[in-house]
Design goal:
single chain, alpha/beta, Rossmann fold, 8 helices, 7 strands, 36% helix
Length: 235
């Protein structure tokens, strides 16, 4: 399924944690910005609880600015804006507060394209589930939001199948560098080069094997709303 990248789009990537947008959409966001669109990454939480049990027991702590700053550094020089809502990670709920907060941000940014986590019942981080549900709920009240796309979870044992493949070959090296900016998460397999290269090749082998054989890299997305053309005007 083709993805139309318009300079008139106002793209908002709404994610739960610092590093989520880089994992799910970095190349796609770069493609949209290359097309001239306004692109903003909105991170719901500051991610201070995103440390391993081993690091926590060793006395390592993060402050509320640390991980959002890593995300900002990941997009340095790309003309992609980054905002953090500063909510506490680990216990988000798709309740009135979260939905209203997201709706206010999407309204302020005049969002026409929303990228967020997948809405599914399989295994995933609890904050990902909460943000996905709240974002889709909020988007229904944003008249100009005509496209909603969901990234593939990195968690095992999910059944989300991305049917929109975005060729990110020209941005795969930038994606790897962006992921390396998250030094507070160093050692996590899903930020490493082997996993990232495998993940970017797998959708091609599944759906576009000839392009995969040529070394093309992809991000796979699942649409829940796509308006591909404006409806005809009524007489």
């Amino acid at each position: 399924m083709p993805l139309l990248l318009s300079p008139a789009d106002r793209v908002v990537a709404l994610v739960a944690h610092p590093d989520d947008a880089e994992i799910l959409f970095f190349g796609t966001l770069r493609r949209w910005r290359d097309a001239g669109a306004a692109v903003t990454v909105v991170i719901a939480t500051h991610g201070v609880h995103g440390i391993s049990v081993t690091d926590r027991d060793a006395g390592i702590r993060l402050d509320a600015e640390h991980r959002p700053a890593e995300s900002a550094a990941a997009y340095a020089g790309t003309e992609i804006d980054v905002e953090c809502l500063g909510l506490e990670d680990g216990a988000l709920q798709p309740d009135r507060h979260l939905v209203s907060t997201i709706e206010e941000v999407m309204t302020r940014l005049a969002c026409t394209v929303l990228l967020t986590h997948a809405v599914h019942t399989g295994n995933d981080h609890q904050d990902h589930h909460a943000v996905a549900k709240a974002a889709v709920n909020a988007a229904a009240r944003i008249p100009g939001c005509t496209t909603i796309l969901h990234g593939q979870p990195i968690a095992a044992h999910h059944s989300v199948d991305g049917v929109v493949l975005v060729d990110i070959t020209n941005h795969i090296d930038g994606k790897l560098k962006a992921l390396q900016r998250h030094q507070s998460q160093s050692g996590r397999y899903y930020l490493g080069q082997p996993f990232t290269r495998h993940r970017s090749a797998a959708p091609g082998w599944a759906k576009l094997p000839h392009q995969a054989a040529d070394g093309r890299c992809f991000e796979a997305l699942t649409p829940s709303l796509m308006l591909l053309a404006n409806p005809p005007e009524r007489p």
